[in-house]
Amino acid sequence: MEYKVTIKDLIRESKGKLIQGDENLVFENLCIDTRELKEGQIYLGFQGEKFNRKYLI
Fold it and tell me: Are the C-beta atoms of 42 and 48 separated by less than 8 Å?
């Protein structure tokens, strides 16, 4: 499954801070399951007992 996530989404969910760049930049071809990872995708892992997909667009 592929997702689209912005830098702003990652900052919000990680409680991070943007130092440089465009917070509206969209990451496409993200994969959240290493079993489904395909060439050209970026793996995005989340820490926690349960993963809540509502955070991804």
Answer: no
